[in-house]
Amino acid sequence: MTKINFSTPSGFPEFLPSEKRLEQHLMDTIRQVYESYGFTPIETPAVERLEVLQAKGNQGDNIIYGLQPILPPNRQAERDEAGKGDTDSEARALKFDQTVPLAAYIARHLNDLQFPFARYQMDLVFRGERAKDGRYRQFRQCDIDVVGRTNLSLLYDAQMPAIIAEIFDRLKIGEFLIRINNRKVLTGFFSSLGVAPDRIKVCINIIDTLEKVGVAKVLTGLATQGLSTEQSQQVIDFIKIAGDADRVLAELNTFADRLPEAAQFKLGIEELTTVINGVRDLGVPTNRYCIDLSIARGLDYYTGTVYETTLLGHEALGSICSGGRYEELVGTFIGESMPGVGISIGLTRLISRLLKANVLQPLAATPAQVMVLNLQEDLMPTYLQVSQQLRQAGIKVVTAFDKRPLKKQFALADKQGITFCVLIGAEEVANRQCQLKNMTTGEQIEIAIDTLATEIDRRLS
User: Fold this and answer.
1) What values do phi and psi take at 57, rounded to 5?
2) What percent of the chain has pLDDT over 70?
3) E strand or H helix that includes residue 78
4) Dist CA 132 CA 130 (whole Å)
5) How high is the pLDDT of residue 83?
6) What backbone phi and psi angles, to 5 degrees, belong to 137?
7) Residue 219: exposed, middle, or buried by beta-carbon count in 10 A (0-12, 13-18, 19+)?
8) What would the pLDDT profile of 114-168 be if each residue is shown by its tens digit?
9) Please, are residues 38 and 67 in contact by the beta-carbon 8 Å criterion?
10) CB 23 within 8 A of CB 363
């Protein structure tokens, strides 16, 4: 018999029940916040045409998973035909993010949607990057985007930090900081230094690596793009401007007054000022956000506001939520101006890192709050009736169908994190009574079966 390797493929995670329940809990919380701001759910295919996914180039350092059919030997002719490969328009691949597929979705359903169109998605995406700690080839992203036709208010950009702040406050994972910038500020700054337009995006991407590689390597990278030592140092000094939002904006305006050819730079400051004012009006606490001029985001389709969120005290985790504004992505498919802004939470990576850092703990392995124990096989009709009575009261219940020693049934309930056990023997049935044991405190009380649901509900709440 051939031995089959049934281990999970590298980079493709699977969760134990307690971890999956934690993921579901976080998704429910995120969903509630998204919907409170009027975002509606959609789902796009896991598979897209390759030309769609590459519409804006192979973004960042993403490696796209292409698909090829694998046919059985008895269909040799079809397999030979398939081996010739799909035409460019038929080649398919797994989606590496949800923003490019969203653009295609809008193009496909343009006449069926109302604009601005605000949607959320919590789908799996796939990237062929090297698997390592906290980095996966399959992972879940929880995204929102708002897309407009012709124009889109910058107040949607301002709303994103309010949503981020509300989500992470509800998740109770500790202190965090939402870092905000505008790529027009960076683009305008490089332009004013005389950097050639075709090198500005490369320079911005180099700046975006500052936290990972440090100042020395950023300076080296800028030098490869033709910047002088003086120009490179000016860039470092510029992106290190810090302080509260008002101070940074004031310094940016001072820069604008003395920079040559500063139209793009000034536009970026204007947009950034509008966004920061909106963030304030939405009541986001000042300790939750800042302007960080080093934030650029690696994807080339971002054109304006950009965001990255850091968990304070756990900066090594990297960004726990990021995104930004894009102007041309949807228009790539339909030839129409359709600006958008969005954010993404890489939930799989976030859960993995926060569990290892003990910021989060797995939930109980089962959602059941109560186990009805099996003391006598002939009393199973009563156990089933009591279980249903509790479920109808909104209590989650597991019934012990197998007759085991009482000690083992208690142990099973304890291992699964079940809070209460219900014990009913022949004497209890005769008196319409039962025993209720709290598995956390060890307390055990006698109670009427008719009032069991009410008492459990009271104790759970």
Assistant:
1) 85, 170
2) 95
3) helix 76-82
4) 6
5) 56
6) -90, -20
7) middle
8) 999 999 999 999 998 777 777 899 999 999 999 999 999 999 999 999 999 999 9
9) no
10) no
Residues of the chain above pLDDT 90, percent:
66
Cα 372–chain centre separation: 38
Supply 73's token pair.
Answer: 């030997």
Separation between Cα atoms, residue 232 and residue 252, nearest integer Å: 18
The phi, psi pair for 173, rounded to 5°, reads -105, 5
Q: Which amino acid appears at position 117 of this protein?
A: F
Cβ–Cβ < 8 Å for 371, 400: yes
Using the 8-state DSSP alphabet, how is residue 315 labeled? G
44 torsion bin: left (phi>0), alpha (psi -120 to 50), beta (else): beta
Cα 105 from Cα 42, distance rounded (Å) = 9
Q: Whole-angstrom Cα distance, residue 162 to residue 251?
A: 25
Outline where DSSP puts E strands in 312-352. 319-326, 340-346
pLDDT at 330: 82
Helix or strand or coil: residue 457? helix
Rounded to whole angstroms, the Cα distance separating 461 from 458 reads: 5
- The strand order across the sheet containing 444-448 reads 397-399, 370-372, 420-423, 433-438, 444-448
Strand-pairing partners, residue 307, are: 180, 323
**How confident is the model over 307-335, as a mean pLDDT?**
89
Closest C-alpha to 104, from 342, 345, 332, 325: 332
151: nearest Cα among 343, 341, 337, 342: 337
Compute the 3-state secondary structure of the chain and give helix, strand, coil in percent, each to the nearest 5. 45, 20, 35
Q: Report the pLDDT value the prediction gives residue 192, as an integer from 0 to 100.
A: 87
Single-letter amino acid, residue 175: E
- pLDDT for res 318: 84
Please tell me the total number of residues recorded for the chain in this structure.
Answer: 461
- For residue 116, whether the previous peptide bond is cis, meaning omega lies within 30 degrees of 0, is yes
Residue 202's nearest CA partner among 181, 218, 185 is 218
Q: What is the pLDDT of residues 378-416, one digit of tens each?
A: 999 999 999 999 999 999 999 999 999 999 999 999 999
